[in-house]
From TrEMBL:
Signal peptide: none annotated. It comes from Postia placenta MAD-698-R-SB12. GO terms for cellular component: catalytic step 2 spliceosome; nucleolus. The keyword Nucleus applies. Belongs to the FRG1 family. Transmembrane segments: none annotated. It comes from the Eukaryota. InterPro entries: Actin-crosslinking, FRG1. This is Uncharacterized protein. Residues 9-24 have a biased composition (Basic residues).
Amino acid sequence: MSSDDKVRPTKLKFKGEKTKKKRKREDGEEGSSTSRRRRKEEEESPETWVLPESAHEIRGPTFIMHPSDPSPICITYDSTRGRIVLHSLDKDRTEGQEPVSFLDRTPAEVSQVWVITRVAGSPTINLRTGVGEGKFLSCDKHGLVSADREARGPQEEWTPIVLPDGMVAFQNVYEKYLAVDEVAGGTIALRGDSDEVGFAERFWVKIQSKYKREAHEEEKKRTEGVTDGMKVDEAGANKIYQAWGAGRSVVSVDDKKELKRARKEGRLAEALLDRRAKLKSDRFC
């Protein structure tokens, strides 16, 4: 048998399957999932719509969807009527357009975008409409959800909870969850009185890539700040940054008297020690 007739080990391939090229690893990190994810985020456009991985990343322009049946929906604000509308995403498709997978959908108009803000260090967020005069999404104690307030208060605060599958649940100040509910006439609306997280309480949330990177940078600085804070000279810092008079310690009149008396007593003690030492030396001379 010639060398050409020898059996060569091969990998099974299906007809039409593309051959994958092997990629070289750089610095031993090329193949790690973390490095691949970071590289992908850096290559993405700042306006690319992505899924958040943690609650602190949910900020800025936000697109909120729900996988309802028979058509997925998104939470929209109708500025003309001043009300929340659950818009069918299938209506955004033009005739002849190829269907887009659910998680690849992006906002088709400004009314489908909510602007999320939060106080630094707070787990709660506020959802403001992206059109009109800017109304906040709120929920009262009866579970009625609306967007007709220009000021924010406790009823306008929501706590986002990222679930293991990547979906998000929104909890209000009454510890109830935002949900999609079927009302009279077969239409659907938002409610905020659910006690548990089920299918109706789970939403897909998409944010812009630049705000996700911004959240990562803030978290990195916060972590590094805590680490660096352990090395601070507390006494020196207090004297420099917490004293008046260009770094001089400013004390009260009583404190000055105490310090003066302490110095006087210290000088007397030193004088006594010197006197004893001198007498001792004279005795042995």
